[in-house]
Structures are given as structure tokens and as C-alpha cells.
Write a structure and sequence with these properties.
CATH class of the largest domain: Mainly Beta
Helix content: 25-40%
Order of helices and strands: HEEEEEEHHEEEEEEEEEEEEEEE
Number of strands: 21
Strand order of the largest sheet: 2-11-14-13-12-15
Shape: elongated
Number of domains: 4
Largest sheet: 6 strands, antiparallel, barrel
Length: 383
């Protein structure tokens, strides 16, 4: 018969084995639950929002005024800041050689007119002689046929001479008109209403047209005051759907809290290859000349689509430095879908990729949720 201590040890060993078997069976019987993931459905809607874009205010017209003829500045009537009207005198030049050229052209014209008058007088006399001889020739034997032919040829020659003298006089008149026009070029006038922004020369400076002495020096620079161009570099994917004539709002730092309006007037239709933007001009009317050209403004550019596109929360878009993607959940399985982003609308962002309306995507995209993982999606109304 075995002793009591031995029987106690056996009982303890059996109890320990039974406990280990019960613990192991319980662990293998309870499967691990899939992690819960908040998802939201992909929406399809037409984009209608605004984006803040930088822009620069430039003059509607700005020009450097050059001399058309070589000459010295005799006087200049304006300076920086002067307001001018179209046709107003800016500067007077002097060029004595132009006066001599005009005088010579006038003398040539007067000489041609005198020769024309003499030729016309001779033509009239010879035609009268021929008519008298022709009348007398009606009586046989009064005028010799040869004399009548000579008188006729003389009158015809006078007619041709008068035509040539008329052309010579016309050419001399045109030459005189050109010389007079050149003389008028010495008076430099404003090409349009505006303000002088820069004065380049002073009395005594030599000026001239392109290719001549003083050609590199303008007289003044003038720009418009009451009309401007607001040039907006619009991203290429935001240009479509906004027709010319659309009123656009913009703000200017010098007028905080004030909102200006201007219509879209000109679209270049050419994308800058470096910035991938397209210059668009707003036609800004400024009758009180409040705005200063060169000012940087902020434009509320309308962004619209004529067709519906897909939107997800901005937080749903993830980036792992190699790709931009959203996490789609399909049958509780995670998928990474590559996307390109577009415009933002409130807390949503436009996405383009292998998605469709109604797809469920993770509210918060992250590369820590790997493709193929099993999740328990929980649909939420908003992120």
C-alpha cells in the first residue's frame, strides 16, 4: 500500500496538467477581432467653389515715348507725376536741318508749279492755233496739209508735256508735305491720357529714331491712371468653365476690408510650361485713380466644373512620398487606390482615379494600413 505523501503528489500533478489543457483550449478557441476603421462614401457632385490666387495690377497702357526725328531737346514741359491729356505737348525738339529740308522742298514745289503753268499756257496757245488752222483748212488751198499736221502734233506734244509736269508738281507737293510732317515730329505729344511715371532726359539731350543718334533714350514714360489690367496666373485645371465677362472679386492690401469687382476680359489660352498656369486678365475700371499699378492683389477665383467629379475628405488622401492614394475598403479588405487631387471645396477635395461614387474609403488615410489587411468598416456621415 502506497503512502499518503505519494498519493498527494500524484493528485497535484494531475490537477496542474488539467489546468494547462483547459487554458490552451480556451486560447485557441477565441479568434482575434478585426480592427475597426471609420469609412465614408465617395461623393459625386459638380464643383462650385472659389480659390485665393495672387495677381498683379498693371497699367492698361504703358509706353516709353521716343523721338521720331533726330534733334536736341529744346524744352520739356512735364516731369515725374505730371498728369497729361492725349495730344498735350510733352517736349519740343530743334533740328535746323529739317527747316532747311522743308525750305528746299517748298522751293522745288513752287518751281514745279511754275513750269506746269507755263506748260499749260503753251498747250492752250498751240491748241488754239491748231483749231484756227483746222477751220481755215475747210477752204481748199488756204492751209497746207503739212502745216496742219505740224500744228496738230505740236498740240499733242504739249498735252503730254503738261501731264508730265503735273506728275512732277504732285511729287514735289508730296515731298513738301513729308518735310512739313517731319517738322511737326519735333513737337512730342502725349499718345493717351495718363500720368508721367519717369522722365529720362533734360534740355540739350540728343534724341533720335531707331538706328540713329540718341535712339536708345526715350523722353518720358506714360501710363494710364483710370484703367488697369489685373493679371491672374490661373492653374491650368481651374481655367475651364469660367467664361469671359464673369465678374470676379479681388482685394488690395492698401484698402483692407474693401472688395473690388472686375470682369474677366482676356484669356491667353496658352499655358506657361514652367508654372503650369495660364495668364488671365481682368479689366479693372478705376475712375477715381485709387489703385496703383504694380500692386499685388488677392483674387477670389471661381472654380467650376460643367460635369460632376468625385470628392472625398481631404484627410482621406495619403502620401508615402512615392504615391498619392486613398484607402478603399472592399469586402472588409484594404485596397490602395492611386489618385490625383484637384480643387478643394470646404472640407472635401476632388480626386481622380479608379474610384466610383459610393465606394467606401477610410476617413483618415495612412500608409500604416497596408493593402490586403482585414478591417471592420464603420460608415460615418462626415469626418
Amino acid at each position: 500500500m502506497r503512502s499518503a505523501p505519494f498519493l498527494a503528489l500524484v493528485a497535484i500533478a494531475l490537477a496542474s496538467t488539467s489546468c494547462r489543457q483547459d487554458t490552451g483550449g480556451t486560447a485557441s478557441a477565441a479568434p482575434q477581432a478585426a480592427p475597426q476603421l471609420d469609412v465614408i462614401t465617395v461623393k459625386s457632385q459638380k464643383l462650385n467653389t472659389t480659390e485665393r490666387l495672387p495677381a498683379e495690377l498693371t497699367p492698361y497702357e504703358r509706353v516709353d515715348v521716343f523721338a521720331k526725328e533726330t534733334g536736341f531737346v529744346k524744352s520739356i514741359e512735364v516731369d515725374r507725376g505730371s498728369k497729361v491729356r492725349q495730344g498735350e505737348l510733352l517736349a519740343d525738339l530743334e533740328a535746323p536741318e529739317l527747316l532747311a529740308r522743308q525750305a528746299q522742298a517748298n522751293a522745288t514745289y513752287e518751281s514745279a508749279e511754275s513750269q506746269l503753268a507755263a506748260g499749260q499756257a503753251k498747250l492752250a496757245a498751240d491748241q488754239a492755233t491748231y483749231q484756227h488752222m483746222l477751220a481755215a483748212a475747210q477752204v481748199p488751198g488756204v492751209v497746207a496739209p503739212n502745216d496742219l499736221d505740224i500744228a496738230q502734233k505740236t498740240a499733242q506734244s504739249d498735252e503730254a508735256n503738261v501731264v508730265a509736269l503735273q506728275k512732277t508738281a504732285q511729287a514735289a507737293q508730296e515731298n513738301l508735305r513729308a518735310a512739313t510732317q517731319l517738322q511737326s515730329y519735333l513737337r512730342i505729344t502725349a499718345p493717351f491720357d495718363g500720368q508721367v511715371t519717369t522722365r529720362y532726359v533734360h534740355p540739350g539731350a540728343l534724341l533720335g529714331p531707331s538706328g540713329g543718334a540718341g535712339a536708345a533714350t526715350p523722353i518720358v514714360q506714360i501710363q494710364t491712371l483710370t484703367r488697369h489690367r489685373l493679371v491672374v496666373p490661373v492653374p491650368e485645371y481651374d481655367v475651364a468653365g469660367i467664361p469671359e465677362g464673369t465678374e470676379v472679386s479681388f482685394t488690395v492690401p492698401s484698402f483692407p476690408g474693401r472688395i473690388f469687382q472686375a470682369p474677366i476680359a482676356r484669356v491667353s489660352r496658352a499655358v506657361d510650361n514652367k508654372t503650369r498656369t495660364m495668364p488671365v486678365e481682368l479689366d479693372v475700371r478705376d475712375p477715381d485713380a485709387e489703385l496703383d499699378p504694380g500692386t499685388f492683389c488677392e483674387v477670389s477665383w471661381p472654380v467650376r466644373r460643367a460635369y460632376p467629379t468625385l470628392f472625398v475628405p481631404a484627410s482621406a488622401v495619403a502620401n508615402d512620398l512615392e504615391r498619392t492614394f486613398v484607402i478603399r475598403v472592399n469586402n472588409n479588405q484594404v485596397e490602395w487606390v492611386d489618385v490625383k487631387t484637384g480643387a478643394k471645396s470646404d472640407n472635401l477635395i476632388e480626386v481622380f482615379g479608379n474610384l466610383k461614387e459610393g465606394d467606401e474609403v477610410a476617413v483618415r488615410g495612412t500608409d500604416q494600413i497596408r493593402p490586403g489587411a482585414t478591417v471592420a468598416p464603420r460608415l460615418v456621415a462626415s469626418p
